[in-house]
């Protein structure tokens, strides 16, 4: 288990600018008009505010990395979990503090780390922390692919039915909007079958047939679904939740209980708490923080105190 502390990295510029990554399409654009006010509140800390320019997810990530390399005092992400995910790639394991402003369809990381769901209230928490010079450490998960590619995530890695549905929806050109995801669910339900997974949990091998597989640094994904309800962002561990040989009817019955986290009581569900998990299966592309990441096999490692939150 690797702890990351500020002593491992150069200190940030105490009077440097606050960089802001904003996704204007997050939450279907319903918070777009709030951005000028959010920037004004951040500027009230007396620091310059730099709005990062990006026209794609890749550009957003590159802009965040460049800002951190330039020595910004903090990075703030205005958007949903996808926007947070891009920003995390730049600040993970550094001394640069981070503040998420929940303005997306899914804001699981921000809410699970204690920020208000209201964007204006969340930015006030960040402003107060900046003025006081206050940060709080939380864990992140580090994802490593078979080719050595590394990604960080803050909330949950989906590697089962939900990942398969996301992959289907992303390949569909019709319909647009949320109906595409609904149709993808119907298509994949018709094709539902357990997959054979090979897991290595802190070195202990297991093979299971499963429909749901999630690795949580935080409890929630998908806009409040508590798939890993007991996950703790400060315990240095990952929660692995495996839902076994569900048929279609059982899965449909269990799915609603995920919002309350009570699905873990089902006899086909198993939960584990580990520092590291190796996960392999055929034909699965994983999704972390709702973003498409790496094909299985992957290794997921808990990294304690990898992020400094402005709280």
Q: Any overview of this molecule?
A:
It is a single chain. Helices cover 27% and strands 30% of the residues. The protein has 8 helices and 16 strands. It has helices at 35-43, 57-69, 81-91, 108-112, 119-132, 161-171, 178-190, 248-254; strands at 18-22, 49-51, 74-79, 98-102, 136-145, 150-153, 156-158, 195-201, 204-210, 212-216, 238-243, 269-274, 276-280, 285-288, 291-295, 298-309. It has a 6-stranded antiparallel β-sheet with strand order 6-5-16-13-8-9, covered by helices on one side. A 6-stranded antiparallel β-sheet has the order 12-11-10-7-14-15. Strands 2-1-3-4 form a 4-stranded parallel β-sheet, sandwiched between helices. Helix 1 (35-43) runs parallel beside helix 5 (119-132) and helix 2 packs parallel to helix 3 (81-91). The protein is globular and about 55 Å long. The two termini are 25 Å apart. Mean pLDDT is 92; it is low at 1-12.
Write the layout of secondary structure elements.
Elements: E1 18-22, H1 35-43, E2 49-51, H2 57-69, E3 74-79, H3 81-91, E4 98-102, H4 108-112, H5 119-132, E5 136-145, E6 150-153, E7 156-158, H6 161-171, H7 178-190, E8 195-201, E9 204-210, E10 212-216, E11 238-243, H8 248-254, E12 269-274, E13 276-280, E14 285-288, E15 291-295, E16 298-309
Parallel strand pairs: 1-2, 1-3, 3-4
Antiparallel strand pairs: 5-6, 5-16, 7-10, 7-14, 8-9, 8-13, 10-11, 11-12, 13-16, 14-15
Helix pairs in contact: 1-5, 2-3, 6-7
